Amino acid sequence: MSIALQLRELLRSGIHRIGELEIQTDVYGYPYVICHHEDAERSTDSAFGGLEVHEGPADARDLSTYAPDGSYRFAKGQTNLKQGWVMALENEEDLRLALDQFYPAGVGLFLASRAGALETETLREKLDRQTGMYRFARTISDAGAQRLVREVCGPAHQCAKKILWRIAPETPLEDSEASRYNGIPGGLAESQAIPLLCREACNHFVAECRKAAKAENDARSEAT
Amino acid sequence: MPIAPKPSSALLIVGHGSTENPDSSTPYFEHADEIRSRGIFAEVHCCFWKEEPSMREAGYLVDSEEIYVVPDFISEGYFTQDVIPRELRLTGPTTVVGGKTYHYCLPVGVHRSMTGLILKRAREVAPGVDPAQTTLIITGHGTGLNQNSTKAIRDQVELIAASGAGYAAVLDAFMEEQPFIAGWDKMALTPNVIVVPFFISDGLHSYQDIPVLLGIENEVGAAASQREIFRHNPHHVRNKTLYYTSAIGTERLLADVILDQVSDFDRIHKLS
Ligand code: SF4
C-alpha cells in the first residue's frame, strides 16, 4: 500500500496530528485541511476563521521555511511553526506532499518504524561520514556528546523529535528530558499523533558537535 | 527529445542544501515542482546533504520500486562521486538497495544542454544588446578542491564559443583561481559584459561575494538586499556596461536538463 493510502488509514484510525500540524478531515468540502494545532479550533469557524487559506500543497515549503520572527527553520523538527494559515487539500497524495515539506519523510519514517523496518544510525557513524570542516566533529568525547543531547535536543530546545539513535552501538543515550521525549508536541496521546522521529543526528547537532569538539581540544592543549 | 512517461518510477533530486541559507535549496524544490507538474514520474522528491530529508532518509519517502537519482550539482566531483553514492549505498550505475532499484544519473551541470540554458540566460538579461559588442563570462568558484567544476565551466566556454552565438569573446573566470573574476573589466575588450554564475543556487557566492568582486557592491551586503543585485541591470561600472545574472541553476528550465540526464541514463545503460 502506498504511503498516501497508509496515511489515510492512520487518519481513519484516529490520528490527527504530526509535529505542530493538526490534520482535519472533511472541512467545507475539502477532504483534508491542515493548520498549526493552536489554530485548529479557529479553523473550523466559518470561512476558516479568517485564517489565510492556501489551496493545494504548493505553499507548504514557504510556510515551513520561516519562523514567525523571520528566521530560517533549517531543522524541520523545530517547534516554531508559523500560525495564522490553513491549507486545504484535495486528496491524500496532496496531503502527503504537503506533510513531506513540513516534516520531510515524517510519515514514511513512522510507517517504517511501525513495520520494524526503520534503520537508525549511531552518532559515531554519522560523525565519521562528515566532510570538510565538519570532519573535526568526530573527535568529540562521549561525555561531550551526551551533554549536547541535553543541551541541543528536546522540546526545551525547540526540537520536537524523538531520538532513536545511540552514541555508539554499546553506548545508549543517558536518561534526560531530551532522550525520553516521545516526538509528540502538545501532550497528545500516542494513539492520536504521528511522532516525529530522529533516526540520525541532524546537521545542527553535527555543527554543535564540531564546536564542542574544538572546545575540548582547546582545553586539552591548554592543560598540556 | 521529450522523455517518455515513467508512471511506476520515482525521481529523486539530490542537492547540497544549507543550514544557514534558505535560498540555497529553493532551486531544487522548484525543479521538483516543475517536473511533478508534468506528471512524468509517479513521484518526485528531493533530498540533501545539509538539509532534511537526508539522503539516508530518502528511501523512506519513496513508494516506487524504481528510482532515478539525479544530482542537481554543477559538476562531477567529490559529492557526486563519493558522498552521494556512499550515502545512498550505490555501487554502480544501477544498484538494488533495500529491494528498490536505484539508477544513478550524471549531474545536471555536465549535460550538453546546459549550453542552451546559459545562452538563454545571457539573452534574457541583456535584451537587444549586440553580441558582437559583448563579452560573455561564465564564472565559478574554482579551487584545488574540485577541479571538475573548473573543467565544467571551461567546457561550456568552448561549446558556446563554437555555437555561433556571436559573442565577441566567451571567457571563464573564477573567484579563487586564475583567471580571477575580479579582473573582468581587464579581460573584456568590449563595452558590454555579461556575467553568468555557474552555480545551482543563489548562495552567498552569487548574492554576496561575486558582486563585490565585480565592483557592483562595495562590501558584502545583508542577505535581504541581495535579490536587488539581479534587478538593477545593467550596472555601469569600471567604464563598462555590466549585466549580472542569477545562478544558472535557478533557471526553471533546468528541470529539462534533469529529465535529459534521465533519458541519457536509459539510452546508455538500459538500451531502451
Ligand atoms: S539531533 Fe536532536 S536537535 Fe537534531 S533533529 Fe534530532 S533530536 Fe532534534
Percentage of residues in DSSP E strands of chain A: 5-15%
Give every kind of bound small molecule, once each.
iron/sulfur cluster
Q: Label the structural class of chain A.
A: alpha/beta
Q: Helix tally of chain A?
A: 9
Please tell me what the overall shape of chain B is: elongated
Largest sheet of chain B: 5 strands, mixed
Oligomer: heterodimer
Q: Which runs of chain A of at least 5 residues are low in confidence (pLDDT < 50)?
A: none
| DSSP helical segment count of chain B | 9
Shape of chain A: elongated
Largest sheet of chain A: 6 strands, mixed
**Spatial gap, N to C terminus of chain A:** 61 Å
Compute the CA-based radius of gyration of chain A. Answer: 19 Å
How many strands in all of chain A? Answer: 8
Q: In which order are the strands of the major sheet of chain B placed? A: 2-1-3-5-4
Secondary-structure-derived class of chain B = alpha/beta
Fraction of helical residues of chain A:
25-40%
In round numbers, the mean pLDDT of chain B is 88
Q: Can I get a quick summary?
A:
Chain A: Pfam families: DR2241, Fer4_23. Chain B: InterPro entries: CbiX-like, Sirohydro_Cobaltochel/CbiX. The complex is a heterodimer of chains A (224) and B (272). Chain A is an alpha/beta fold and 224 residues long.
